[in-house]
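Checklist before submission:
- one chain only
- standard amino acids only
- sequence pasted in full

Submission:
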Amino acid sequence: MKILLIEDDTNIVSFLQRGLIEEGHSIDTSFDGEEGEYLASINSYDLIILDWMLPNKNGIEILNSLREKDISTSVLMLTAKGEIDDKVLGLNSGADDYLSKPFSFKELTARIDAIYRRSLSDGKNIIIVKDLNIDINKRVVKKEDNEILLSSKEYELLLFLIKNKNSMVSNGMIEEQLWNNEEFTNSNVIQVTIYNLRKKIGKDLITSFRGLGYKIEI
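Returned file contents:
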């Protein structure tokens, strides 16, 4: 997943950034409310982790502004405000979930996974694409009851294509999503990852548009 973390506590940012990268996510960070809103407005993210109390613009103001702009990116509010009325305000402002500080990293990742499941498959744990069966909870992919071993990048690419099902995704979109525009993607790493994924799940599942991009039709 490509995640934007808007949080002004440097210790929390360092802790979450390290842990989420280890989980295979791509992370952008901002310590400032106005900058965070700008990043959320110009980039495509799977999830925004948004602190309530921020310099220059608070989380609720950011959330209201994003929703007014019809930016529907999922938002997990992460804040020290734990009163019921605060939670209700956050959810009514357009947040998808709410986690009070202090929190466990295990619970945070569980909530992130739950939000992503809802965006992919209406909250279901299992995604079925033709003869593929994908268990999002277990990160297990099966084809005709046989488990397919995918690398982390292959798995994330498969989910990204499914999330954008029936629409072509370009090399640039894949680069930004999975590698966060790292310099080494100037090589053929994307094409190699696509090749290996198609080889494992079946070439007929991913349509290739030479020089343009790729698509899964469901």
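Reviewer check: Helices lie at 10-22, 33-42, 59-68, 84-92, 105-121, 152-163, 171-179, 189-201.
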